[in-house]
Amino acid sequence: MGLDLDLTAPDLTLAWPQLIVFVMTVVLLFADAFVPKAQHFATLTGISLVGYIGAAFALVTQSGQNAATFDGAFRADGLTVFLSLIILVAAVATVVISASYLQNGEQQLGSDGRLRIANSVPAGEFYVLIGFSVFGAMLVAAAGNLIVLYIGIELSALATYVLTAFAKRRLTSVEGAMKYFLLGLFASAILLYGMTWIYGVTGSMDLDRIAAHLAGTDAGDGFTDPALLLGLLLLVVGIGFKMAAVPFHFWTPDAYDGAPTPVTAFMSVVPKAAAFAAAIRLFVQALEPLSDQWTTLWAVLALVTMVFGNVVAIAQRNVKRMLAYSSIAHTGYIMVGLAAYTSGGTIDDPSISSLLFYILAYTFMNIGAFAVITYLQQRGVGMMLEDFNGLASTRPLIAVAMTLFMASLMGVPPLLGFYAKYYVIVAAIDADLLWLAVTIVVASAVSAFFYLRIVAVMYFNQPDGRPLALPTRLLSGGIGVLAVATLLLGLFSSPIIDLADQWSGALTVLGRTAGQ
Amino acid sequence: MNTQLYGSDWVVIGILILAAAALGYALLTLNQIIAPSKPSAAKAAPYESGVPEVVATKPRFTPRFYVVAMLFVVFDIEAIFIFPWAVVFDGLGLYGFLAMLAFMFLLFDGFIYAWKKGALEWA
After folding, report:
1. Which of the 8 DSSP states describes residue A224?
2. A300 and chain B in contact, CB less than 8 A
3. Which one, of A416, A415, A318, A326, lies nearest residue A373 by Cα?
4. Residue B13 belongs to domain spanning
5. Which residues of A touch B91 (CB under 8 A)?
6. Run of H or E including A69
7. Is residue B83 one of the residues assigned to a domain?
8. Which residues pair with A107 in a beta bridge?
């Protein structure tokens, strides 16, 4: 057997944004080892911000492109651009809001009434792990191949497991990380098993080739190969774990509650965005011919997730736990976009655009909410409902920002969250899923109770006179920017939706077959 | 699409899952019913046919062990990848050479990081 190796250099210009993030992370690693301790924090924060923002600019130049390299394993199309932008926005926001946490650590109120540092966090490792997680998530968004997709998910998740356990002296942090780690591994194994079934049936790892194979054999009617359905089911379960859908959500409250708050903000967005990226790549791009099967699965899961997340959140008095269940509920809303997919993948199909827009909106408001908790945690414990008592009189601007985030998560017009829900509901109605649209509305009404409770506590209760430490300017500025974005981005949503509409570029193979 | 066929698609999966569950439960239950239960001290020991433990099974050992183990992985993986690369070196051309240089740089990067962080100091 002769060695048949054709190694051609890939078109690396397509991968610039991802490469920038990767190189930045390597530079961070060196900077962590060589920069003297005094300039540590400023240098590392600077490198991170420059890297992520540079990568975002590199991405914007790729807008409108539709190309693939590395033998089709890496794709630079509209979907890559939009999802990577979401991930980079989340990364920048996380770096900004984690600044005061990294400088001050977790503070606890001592018995003498003074704040002392309970958990100091090594800034270097923190930024490096965030960098690898962001790189992994961007790789998922750009994956054109099952293996690349899986590696991206794992890279993103492994870094997040470590970050969850970063407050290593606090038991809840270690406990949350352990549960997240074990269930995450379990989910990865299921996902991989599903991929082997899909590979076994279609004989290809390439997403486009899988789609072409299925479109050729199945033609949408008649009896579907049960092996294919089993693979589909396993993929749904694996991805469902990663995106924290009910009934695969058990790790979520403990992990979110235990992780340091900036990490919670990060892991409530980036791994979720990666999971949805994987879902779009796997189901819409590769398994599109089976869309009648998987839309039903996602519709049912979306319903259960929305109802469960919102109802359980009512009972929480710990705000971080409450936001964990709220994030489960939002997973449900986002999943409606996936369920509303109608086969064909034309530009008019609003489902995937609405899903993408929802993740972007969720990024701003959810990281904002966790940023406010980070801000409050400086005064001691800071994540119970009582810690918000009378915030409006002691820190009026922060209280206004928190009110905006809560109202946006609830879906009050004209905030960003309202537009996100609006687009998803329109997509659901377009796909004749009226029952899902109604569920979104009812679930949002239920969610008003626990979101407004925080607002009520801030404005109507008396402050309890606990000491307030001064947070860094970076954190306050970050909360301000996120609040303004939550307030205004919804009003200017149409260019964002236009950008999100470019996702259909991912469906090149099917577009060709449909055009014949 | 045909709803009847649509239903039957998933029935096969359902039957598979039910069959797998039923088989598992059946074997366990059968074991409970049929197997005679005669516990003895020797059977209850952790290793029925092995040497009983002499010292406590949870000794403390230094975390440096893990650091060295990780450093070993760095070089081990490097060697594993370099061997096949070296075999086909001629066919790979300049791009193959540069790709391996990038790969080795990244591993080396991890090594420098570990070194600088004090992983090799035994004091």
Report:
1. P
2. no
3. A318
4. 3-35
5. 3, 5, 7
6. strand A67-69
7. yes
8. A117
For an interface test with B, which of A1, A7, A132 has the most B Cβ atoms less than 10 Å from its Cβ? Answer: A7
pLDDT at A468: 64
**B118 DSSP β-pair partners:** none
Partners of residue A68 on adjacent β-strands: A75
Total structural domains within chain B: 2
Distance CA A354, CA A432 (A): 16
Q: Helices marked H in A377-433 — which ranges?
A: 391-394, 396-410, 416-430
**Are the CB atoms for A297 and A229 separated by under 8 Å?**
no
As a whole number of angstroms, the distance between CA A421 and CA A32 comes to 42
Q: List, in order, residues 6 or more apart from A109 with CB less than 8 Å away.
A: A115, A379, A380, A381, A466, A467
Of B2, B16, B116, the CB nearest to A34: B116
User: Which residues of chain A neighbour B13 with C-beta distances below 8 Å?
Assistant: 226, 229-230, 233
User: What 8-state DSSP symbol labels residue A318?
Assistant: B
Pick among A24, A25, A26 to test the B interface (most B CBs inside 10 A): A26
Q: Is A108 helix (H, G, I), strand (E, B) or coil?
A: strand
Chain B nearest C-alpha distance from A26 (Å): 8
**Element of type H or E holding A264:** helix A261-267
Amino acid, single-letter form, for residue A92:
V
Does any domain span residue B25? yes
Q: Which chain A residues have a beta carbon less than 8 Å from that of B10?
A: 229, 293
Residue recorded with tokens 């819409």:
A284
HSE-CB for A478 with a 13 A CA cutoff: 32
Residues 6+ apart with CB under 8 A from A329: A305, A306, A308, A309, A310, A313, A443, A447
Q: Is the pLDDT of residue A497 over 50?
A: yes
pLDDT surpasses 70 at A4: no
Nearest by CB: B9 against A8, A34, A229: A229
* Domain residue extents for chain A: 13-515
Question: Predicted ipTM?
Answer: 0.74
**One-character DSSP codes across B18-87:** HHHHHHHHHHHHHHHHHS-----HHHHSSSTTSPPPSS-S-----THHHHHHHHHHHHHHHHHHHHHHHH
Write out the two tokens for A234: 């396993």
Helix (H) or strand (E) segment spanning residue A482: helix A473-488
Per-residue pLDDT tens for A103-142? 766 655 555 656 566 556 778 889 999 999 999 999 999 9
The rounded distance, in Å, linking the Cα atoms of A110 and A116 is 7
In this complex, do B10 and A32 lie within 8 Å of one another by their Cβ atoms?
no
- pLDDT tens digit string along A431-464? 889 999 999 999 999 999 999 999 999 999 888 7
Find chain B residues with C-beta within 8 A of A221's C-beta.
1-2, 5
Structure tokens at B103: 């790969």
Reported pTM? 0.88
Do B112 and B68 sit in the same domain of this protein? Answer: yes
Measured distance CA(A454)–CA(A319) in Å, rounded: 8
Q: Find where tokens 């197997």 sit.
A: B35
